[in-house]
Amino acid sequence: MSQPDHAKLDPRGRKVKILATTGPASREPEMLRKLFRAGVDAFRVNMSHGEHAIHAQTMKAIRDLEKEFHRPIAIFCDLQGPKLRVGKFKDGKAVIRHSGHFTLDRNPEPGDETRVELPHPELFGLLEKGQRLLINDGKIRLRVIEADDEKILCSAEVGGVISDRKGVNIPDAEVPIPALTDKDRKDLAFAMENGADWIGLSFVQRPEDLAEARKLMGGRGALCAKIEKPMAVRRLDEIIEMADGVMVARGDLGVELEPQEVPPLQKLIVNKTRLMGKPVIVATQMLESMIESPAPTRAEVSDVANAVYDGADAVMLSAETAAGDWPEEAVTIMDKIAAQVEQDEAYIERVRLLDTPPDSTTADALSHACMTIADTVPISAITVFTGSGSTARRVARERPSVPMLVLTPSMKTARRLALLWGAHAVATKDIGSFEEMIAKGKRMTLRHRFGKAGSKLIALAGVPFGTPGSTNLLHVVTLAGDELEKHRG
User: Which parts of 25-137 fold into alpha helices (H)?
Assistant: First the structure.
């Protein structure tokens, strides 16, 4: 799927990627097309909402876009995960008094202002005195006075109106519930059948939570661990190790933690994931006011800019594009913010504040050398030849100052890299020799407008070709500028 000369879309010109959520406001082919042209690199399909038939149409429309623009696009299917909820009330709702007592029990009868059913038997006997229960996204805050196998007596630190089936968060305990529900397993099977490139796993608390999803995926697609529970932070290194990428899911983190705890945690998760050379996405409420307004607040602009300065691989739009009134404008503004930050002279210095010492492998040493050479010599692009994408991830980890053109024989790899910092991936025929590699690298650089006559390139690959993990060759070449004409001739 190499790009013809009359390509309709220039390279993005920015290194951070934009992930946009599809939904009622954006799933029509024409709107998807507008969002892609405005700057979207990957689309998120939220499995919490909508029918499989609608999601299948959306995914097909994205694949049609891919063919039209000759540009790999990642499809990120986000699983709902388990939801803890209270039962029902006699009148559909009740009022919990501030500082009053309220009991959660196993009695299925409708609740009132003093009690309600908690239809999750696994939570009884788990909670201890002093632990918190947050209801309806933290609007109601209860603290456990005493708990046993039948009931949990609480004091209402923050009372208010509670209604049927409202969500419950338990931030102070590891909840003995697997990350995958029956619905998630069906959604995961659907996503795999329809060629999803990434799966977002919700409710991750421990590394073992990733194992079942990984097994069900059967080697297809990449697995992203959504960090939305404080319990996950305790075992963050192990979770990142098990995942292919990580999402900082700030909405749920913000419910279970104090608001001021989220920003430093965001930086910690971004840094730890970057150190391991895996993509990290910052998500939730980035341009929240643009659900209803055509312009963001100054604080939202700063929030997106900070995520870019932190070196995140991707920034995500949720309801802004899924259900908002201004989906195209939200993408356009996010694109402009990212481009402006990356033009800042201090940007590369800022993203390199994180020291990423190379591992003691040839591939890591050469990836590090790419960055050093690009800082020393006027290089227009780093051309990376890779089958699995691991070489591209190594180079991206160093945050080089020049674009990375990734050439791969695997369309799956090219799509997956749509969420990797600085990677412009192209699926192209495999190469068989060193000479062919250099010639193809030059042609592709010209075709995709990453260089012109006299431009210097770095080519990074492994010999023998087609052997995974064999990156052992770095070559600096100069473009004559006539390579495309000669090839045609």
Answer: 29-38, 52-69
d(CA 283, CA 416): 18
How far apart (Å, rounded) are the C-alpha atoms in residues 90 and 46? Answer: 33
Q: How far apart are CA 46 and CA 53, in angstroms?
A: 13
Catalytic residues: 44, 85, 226, 284
Q: Are strands 140-147 and 456-462 parallel, antiparallel or unpaired?
A: unpaired
- Spatial separation of the C-alpha atoms in residues 145 and 165, rounded to whole Å: 23
For strands 132-135 and 222-227, give the pairing.
unpaired
Give the separation between CA 50 and CA 248, rounded to whole angstroms.
24
Give the chain's largest Cα–Cα span: 84
Count of other CB atoms within 10 angstroms of residue 396: 27
| 246 vs 462 pLDDT, higher one | 246
pLDDT at residue 8 in the model: 60
Taking only the tens place, the pLDDT of each residue in 122-147 is 999 999 999 999 999 999 999 999 99
For residue 294, give both structure tokens: 């055509």
Q: Which helix (H) or strand (E) holds 363?
A: helix 362-376
Q: How far apart are CA 217 and CA 188, in angstroms?
A: 8
pLDDT of residue 4: 43
Residue 457: CA count within 13 A, CB half-sphere: 30
pLDDT in tens, 193-232: 999 999 999 999 999 999 999 999 999 999 999 999 999 9
Q: Which letter does DSSP use for residue 417 in this model?
A: G
Helix axes 182-193, 209-217, angle to 10 degrees: 40
Q: What is the C-alpha to C-alpha distance for residues 153 and 94, in angstroms, rounded to an integer? A: 17
**Predicted TM-score (pTM) above 0.85:** yes
Q: How far apart are CA 375 and CA 246, in angstroms?
A: 29
